[in-house]
Every structure is written in structure tokens, then in C-alpha cells.
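Sample 3 of the quickstart, ligand S-adenosylmethionine:
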Amino acid sequence: MSKLKPLMDSFGRRITYLRISVTDRCNLRCVYCMPEDGISLLNHDEVISYEDILRLVGILSNHGVNKIRITGGEPLVRKGLTGFIENIGRIKGVEDISMTTNGILLERYASELYNAGLKRINISLDSLKEDRFNKITRIGNLKDVLTGIKIAKKTGFNPVKINTVLIKGINDGEIIDFVNFAKEFELNLRFIEYMPIGGNIADAVLSKEIEEKIKSEFDDFSLIAGSQANNADNKDGGSAAGVADKAEVYNSVSRSFGFKDGKAVIGFISPLSEHFCGDCNRLRLTASGDLRPCLFYDNEYNIRYILKENGDEAVFEKISDIIKLKRFKHSFNEKAKKQESLLWANDFMNGIGG
Ligand code: SAM
Ligand code: SF4
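Result:
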């Protein structure tokens, strides 16, 4: 079937990117993502089935959604993930599949995933010190993630991106260690501003502070021309060669910097200090099957029911209506400044997928 009308929000932004949280379960309990006792988890029959997700992706890909990210919870704890990824790759119109993982299970699954068609991976890592890593994740072992990163590189994933969240007084002293680590292993490191959901805004380390710190240590640390959030027009190579493919550097919500030796790309994702909403092309699917037009608003619409009751075109029309409710930008920082609650109704990041 040829491509039908595109999925478009009421501001004329085309939705081409679906982030799928395949589970709310996780083998870690990161302090900024989940409460210590864990959360009340979905029953198995409350989690959206792979069949439903595949049907949804098939419908959306027909209308221009071509980029898929698998996330969670920890996606690798859901059974059958490799086969699911393989099936997503078979859907016509899907051009790009990536995954965000904490890396703990990569030693076991990296080559299986790669053979299933996953070629790009983001691994979250918030400390290079064993005891601190354990404190942040509450139960994790650093060496498992480091092994996962090395194996991901060796397997051929490209790029391997590292997602790092800094929290004041906890791991913000490791900025330069992280840069050196990225250079040593030729990684694409992205500092994500901590979103203090239910926490304190003062704990966030803003991108500008991190950028200044790196500049003070590395003379050749410079912005990759045109890498400003969502600027897909300027495809000048800059110093990103070898670490990330160019389209990826230029078409993301991060601002990217490089070094003369081209050994690492350092990106900044700044939901607090900068709006990256302007060109937002995303839609999120939660583990319970709720479509979420924006990470920062808890408007959700359950797709499982819609899929059950409707044919493909009717499903698309209903999703189109949902997309029309997408707001132009989030008010997360305004809320934070006024010290209003940032907590979403019943949600933690593990269910939505970050
Ligand atoms: N379990 C996987 C992982 O940790 O990579 C995937 C899910 S996790 C929710 C996705 C991303 O969200 C991770 O990179 C994590 O660091 C980030 N994240 C979670 N809570 C956050 C918060 N409060 N502020 C900023 N980033 C957060
Ligand atoms: Fe799990 Fe990822 Fe959340 Fe950490 S950030 S608790 S690894 S879902």
C-alpha cells in the first residue's frame, strides 16, 4: 500500500518517530526514575502485546512514521524482545530502529539483537565509580554495564550512545571522567538534564554548566555546526566522523559537540534549560498501551481498546485526533520555577520510557 496522509499535529508538525515502552519492569531502581520500593507493576495481561504493537507500527508506518525506539522499564527484561525487533524491522516504511537500555543484560543479548536488525543503541550510565553506580541504581553492578558497552561496540552497534544524567552533589564531579571515557571508547555521550519528578529542581545540573566545565578542560571542544536541536538541514560533517552517523547528529533533540581528534561526540539534551519542543516529531506508547503525545503531560489514550474495536483506517483516524491534542511546548520549566509539582498523576519514568 502506498503511503497515505501523514500523521500531523495541529501545529503542522509531522509525527515520524514512535518511542515504545515495552515494559514497566526493570532490573535496576535508579533513584531519579523509580521509588525505592519499586512501583505497583502492571499485570502481564495489562501490558500491551507484541501483536498489538506490531499492528500499530504497521498502521503508523503507512502514514510516515519511520523511526522506532524501544525503551522501558528495561526492555531487555521482556521475553521475546529479539523476535519482536526482527518483526518490527520487517514492517514496510520502518527505516530506523534503536533501543535505550541500562546495558546490564547486553552481554547476553547484544549479538542476538544485532542479528535481529537492531544497529543503534543507547546505554544509560550515570557513574564510573562502582560504589556510586550502585548507590544511584540501588542494586546495579557497574562492571555489567561496562561489559555491555564494550560488547555493544565489538558487536558493531553504531553509534553506541551513552545517556548520562547528572545530579548535583551526587555525580556532577565526574564530568571530565565521562568525557575521557567517551574519548577512550569512541562513544557518543549525551548529558540529559535531570528532570526532578517529585524531587528538587536545585538538584539539576544544567547543560550550560557542563559545557563550560568541559570547555575549561578541552581547548578543542566545539559545537558541531548545525547540530542544534532538530536541525536536519545542515549536514556538514564536523568532528563527528567515526563516532556517529551524520544524520543522527543533526536530527536529534541534542546539541552536539566534538573534538579535533574526532574520538567522541558530546551531546546535551536540555529539557529544563532549553525547549526542544519546536520541531517535536514524537509520539510515545507506554507499556500499558497508552499513547502519550508528550512526555511532559499525562494525557494518555489507550490504544489496546482502539485496536480491538476498529479497522486500520479507523485506528489511524482516532490516532490523528489524539495527535491534534499535542501541545506546542511543555511547561515543565515554568512549573519548576514556580516550585509546582512536577509529578505526573500516576507515572514514573519507567512506565513512560523517558
Ligand atoms: N531502562 C532503560 C535505561 O535506563 O536506559 C530505558 C528506560 S529509561 C526510563 C530511559 C532514559 O530515561 C534513561 O537514559 C534514563 O537515564 C532517563 N531518565 C529516567 N528518569 C529520568 C529523569 N528523572 N530525568 C532525566 N532522565 C531520566
Ligand atoms: Fe530502570 Fe532505566 Fe529507570 Fe534506571 S532509568 S530504573 S534502568 S528504567
